[in-house]
Specification:
This protein is mainly α. It is 60% helix and 5% strand. The N terminus is likely disordered.
Length: 1011
């Protein structure tokens, strides 16, 4: 008897053998059923070798209890101790699968299926499984026989007798035998129907690929034909009944559960199409209507049941179409779109546990292999395998994939599929989610041979393999391209460890061109020249670029214009390739390379800015995650520019420096915008697009203001020294004053001055006009930096009025002549440069005009509405689509801004929150003051943000400003990518824009026009 407070020796031994609940295990060992063997040391050793010793012991006791008589129980215990193969198989299954333990408890004789260990039992095929199912004549008996066969597959799997590929093939063969048995049962139940038709069952998906999971939908397609002399319509109806009955036999739940769902949704037209078609009907559909993904699915088509000759005819008829799929328009776009849709549909709470569909999961490997098969299988028949690992091996042997990459991908795929198998085996449930409970992870880890610290080792290995897949599945397409163009093959070849470089088969030039076209490159010959120029040679630069190019090429292909991205990268590399910091940046800073790829392939503006001073590429890698792209504050910009102006020899040199800073900071802002809109592998796209718009508008406005301030200082210093004869201020107007400038916006301004004490009015006015003239000239001098255009047309009297006025002149004009449109324009006025005190006084002068006491009168409101209606009818460009014009179109910028400004003019005198130059702030204040509803405010805000983003996107993509969507397809697609629309979704983008702005116009009609 064990002393109080001390553990028994059995308890300690159980802990040592891996039991997590030794107290419960001790009680089970004391049960009468285990009396003959409880002290035999081999029992504990065998239990301790299982994935879950507690589960295995519990299952063993239940199996012994279920034996119908003592002699049967004694037979089991004697065999268990005497026969190591049975002991390992039986306990291995009981420790890995609660579901199969339940089956054995219900069918206690089925343990005999694990006794035989002859060579022919090691790798059974379809014939052996058909013999195992032969006596099943009804759905219940078929389920029992199926589980009995599954026992032997699971036993070989958990004991390591078969590897992953063999296990998956056996599961597919068992599925084939089961489909045949189910069809036989259905035919026996309806012999008249069976006599009318020929019915072929084509396995698809993993069953067709001979790589099935333990529990998975078995995808099938049915082909039917009438027997000689039978009516085709009646024959198809008969075949449909047989097919539907066969599916129910496998899928429906009985007292013995179900087998697995049979899914026929891969058939033409999916759920909406007929369940059974003739071969001619199938062929007509695929020739005329099928989508790219349907041909991709046909890679795995394999006749498995029914009329196998008809099945073979089906495969032979469709095979030529499958291998022409890569020639279809939008082939890669369709494939990428399908992959992206799979990832987008994963619930956010599950993506970190998703083994199959998440980035770095099984689907990444399968998609990559299938895409390469479709591209190169046209010419190389050795690639035409439906089995992923076989196809991967063939791709490596043919030089379409680097051997080392293929070996690492093979290893990762086997690990992830084994995890998937073990997870499903436990409950025989269809799932691809890694369990969260520690006990489940412990069992899973031990089932895969991780025994020291199963949970930690499992998670570490899982993440390692997922990372390998995530990094390689894109490189897989591009790394062999380097070999195809290499001048220095030993530095570019990727062979298996220990293999000679010459053993690597290269991608042929033709195959390389085909791959580039399939992956979205319009000019494959030019792309190959760029790759050759970047990757060839023995320099450090070439070595680093060889490492980076496979990843960069994938990022370029993810854009709307891969060719431009690659060309721009070559230009940057040619300019900076010998600069040590540039090579270190790309090599060591993870964010820099991806940020550079996104920026170079997103359009013309950012690359153009970068090419004028390539050293700005350093901004892409500063700090963690590219924090160097954060737009700089106005104070920092002023400090840098004014300090440089102070050091300059003359105004030209000073303004040249100021414009150089503007160019650099425009690039920083554009890159920040692009990366925030596209997202990266580690940082998703910005969720709050309104905040991103505000940051960009504020950054460009601050940059413009700082440039004007520096230019003003330079001009004054060159002409008058430290003091101008008149105080001088620049007032921002329009989008400039509202902190909402776009990349291509002019700077709308007013110039105001006030003569210093004792300075004649004429002298002061001349000085102020000379300052403005010189500022405009210097900011537009032809140079490598983009010009800054100053627009003063919003001044009193417009183009007919003086360019600069004194404060007194403004006061006199506004007192006597001011029109309502000028009051509206002044809502955006804000000092941006020059004498701060003078700017403040100007604002005091105009506040009564823009926020009139008692608000606007009815006549003024009617005048504003008249002006707006006239602008809509006269200023919209001829031929422009009013539903897509971002500025003047329905529900666009003008609609929202005029609505907000009318509210400011009418209520700004009583609502301080409305006294802002910024549209979104004014809209929020209007809502806070309960002048409009929350819903209407949200509708207007959404439309304004979207229209602003479209304008920004057009400028980024085309390199020149525009108020409507581009007509050129690639440019339109690039705008779509910036806005978050994947390949092939341009139509959705335009529909969403029209829908958003249509709703906004409905609000404008009520709030602005009083409809």
């Amino acid at each position: 008897m064990t002393a109080p407070g001390r553990r028994s020796s059995t308890f300690t031994r159980l802990l040592r053998h891996g039991f997590t609940d030794p107290s419960a295990a001790e009680r089970l060992l004391e049960s009468a059923e285990l009396a003959p063997i409880r002290n035999d040391p081999v029992l504990l050793e065998a239990l301790g070798a299982t994935a879950d010793p507690d589960l295995a012991l519990q299952g063993l006791v239940r199996l012994l209890e279920a034996q119908p008589e003592p002699t049967a129980r004694r037979e089991l215990t004697d065999t268990l101790i005497a026969a190591k193969p049975l002991r390992d198989r039986l306990l291995g299954v009981l420790g890995a699968s609660a579901a199969l333990g339940d089956h054995l408890a219900r069918h206690p004789h089925d343990w005999h299926a694990l006794v035989m260990y002859e060579p022919r039992d090691l790798h059974p095929g379809v014939e052996e499984f058909e013999r195992g199912l032969a006596e099943a004549t009804d759905p219940v008996a078929l389920r029992v026989a199926y589980r009995r066969c599954l026992l032997s597959i699971a036993a070989r799997d958990v004991c390591g007798t078969t590897d992953l590929a063999q296990t998956a093939a056996e599961l597919a063969d068992l599925a084939t035998a089961t489909l045949r048995a189910a069809l036989a049962i259905a035919s026996a139940a309806a012999p008249d129907d069976a006599a009318l038709c020929r019915l072929a069952v084509i396995a698809m998906g993993k069953c067709g690929g001979h790589e099935l999971n333990y529990i998975s939908d078995v995808d099938v397609i049915y082909v039917g034909e009438a027997v000689d002399g039978a009516d085709e319509g009646k024959a198809l109806r008969a075949a449909t009944k047989l097919a539907a009955h066969m599916m129910r036999i496998c899928s429906e739940t009985t007292v013995e559960g179900s087998i697995w769902p049979v899914d026929a949704n891969l058939r033409p037209e999916g759920r909406n199409g007929p369940l059974v078609r003739t071969l001619a009907s199938h062929l007509a559909y695929y020739q005329r209507w099928a989508k790219t993904w349907e041909f991709q699915a046909l890679l795995k088509a394999r006749p498995v049941a029914g009329d196998l000759a008809l099945g073979a005819e089906y495969v032979a008829a469709l095979e030529p179409l499958v291998w022409k799929a890569a020639e279809r328009e939008n082939f890669v776009t369709d494939v990428q779109k399908m992959r992206r849709r799979v990832v987008e549909n994963i619930p956010a709470a599950e993506i970190d546990r998703e083994l199959k569909l998440a980035p770095g999961g099984l689907r990444d490997v399968e998609f990559a292999v299938q895409l390469l098969q479709l591209v190169h299988g046209r010419a190389d028949t050795s690639l035409r395998s439906g089995t992923t690992l076989v196809a991967l091996e063939a791709l490596a042997a043919g030089g379409y994939v680097g051997r080392e990459d293929a070996a690492r991908l093979d290893d990762a795929y086997r690990f992830l599929r084994t995890m998937e198998h073990r997870i499903q085996l436990y409950r025989l449930r269809r799932t691809h989610l890694v369990p969260v409970e520690e006990a489940d992870q412990r069992r899973l880890g031990r089932s895969m041979g991780l025994r020291t610290d199963p949970v930690a080792e499992l998670n570490r290995e899982w993440k390692r393999h997922a990372t390998v897949v995530r990094r390689l599945h894109e490189k897989l397409f591009y790394r062999p391209l380097l070999d195809a163009v290499a001048q220095l093959s030993p530095t570019l070849e990727f062979t298996r460890a220990g293999g000679p470089p010459s053993g690597e088969t290269r991608l042929s030039p033709q195959a390389a061109r085909e791959r580039l076209v399939a992956l979205g490159y319009n000019d494959p010959a030019a792309a190959l020249r760029h790759i050759e120029a970047l990757a060839s040679g023995v320099t450090r630069k070439a070595a680093i670029q060889r490492t980076l190019l496979p990843v960069l090429l994938g990022w370029f292909a993810d854009s709307a214009d891969p060719d431009a991205g690659l060309l721009n990268f070559r230009k940057v590399s040619d300019a900076l390739g010998k600069t040590p910091w540039y090579l270190r940046l790309l090599r060591d800073e993870g964010a820099a390379a991806e940020n550079l790829a996104r920026v170079l392939s997103a359009g013309r503006l950012a690359p153009d800015l970068l090419m004028r001073a390539p050293e700005a590429v350093a901004l892409l890698g500063d700090g963690d995650g590219g924090s160097g792209l954060e737009p700089r504050e106005r104070a920092h910009l002023d400090q840098e520019i004014l300090a440089a102006v102070g050091r300059a020899d003359d105004a030209v040199q000073a303004v040249t420096f100021a414009r150089g800073v503007r160019r650099r900071e425009l690039f920083r802002t554009a890159a920040f915008d692009i990366v925030g809109s596209y997202g990266t592998e580690t940082q998703p796209a910005a969720a709050d697009q309104g905040a991103l718009v505000d940051r960009v508008g504020g950054a460009v406005s601050d940059l413009t203001a700082a440039t004007l301030a520096g230019t003003l200082r330079a001009v004054v210093r060159a002409g008058w020294g430290d003091t101008l004869p008149t105080r001088f201020a620049v007032i921002g107007m329009g989008r400039f004053g509202g902190h909402e400038l776009g990349y291509g916006s002019d700077a709308d301004v007013l110039f105001v001055h006030e003569p210093r004490e004792g300075v004649p009015e004429r002298e002061a006015s001349d000085a102020a006009n000379r300052v403005v003239s010189e500022m405009r000239r210097l900011l537009q001098v032809a140079s490598s930096d983009p010009p800054l255009l100053i627009d003063a047309d919003l001044r009193p009297e417009g183009k007919s009025g003086p360019l600069v006025r004194s404060l007194n002149s403004y006061e006199a004009y506004y007192r006597r002549w001011s029109l309502v449109w000028e009051s509206q324009a002044l809502l955006r006025a804000e000092p941006v440069a020059g004498d701060a005190e003078l700017g403040r006084r100007f604002i005091e002068l105009i506040d009564p005009l823009r926020y009139p006491a008692e608000g606007l009168g009815d006549d003024a409101v009617r005048e504003i509405r008249r002006l707006k209606a006239r602008m809509e009818s006269e200023r919209l460009p001829r031929g422009a689509d009013p539903t897509l014009h971002t500025k003047l179109g329905r529900g666009g910028l003008s609609d929202v801004e005029w609505t907000v400004q009318l509210m400011q003019l009418r209520h700004g005198w009583t609502e301080p929150g409305l006294r802002t130059t910024r549209t979104r702030e004014g809209l929020a204040a209007t809502c806070a003051a309960e002048l409009i509803s929350v819903e209407d405010a949200a509708t207007l805000d959404e439309a304004w943000v979207l229209a602003t983003r479209v304008r920004n996107a057009v400028m980024l993509v085309r390199g020149r400003a525009g108020d409507t969507f581009p007509s050129e397809p690639r440019e339109l697609a690039a705008v779509g990518r910036y806005l978050g629309y994947g390949p092939g979704h341009v139509g959705d983008m335009l529909d969403d824009y029209r829908r958003t702005t249509r709703r906004a116009r409905g609000v404008v009609d009520v709030l602005f026009y009083g409809a």
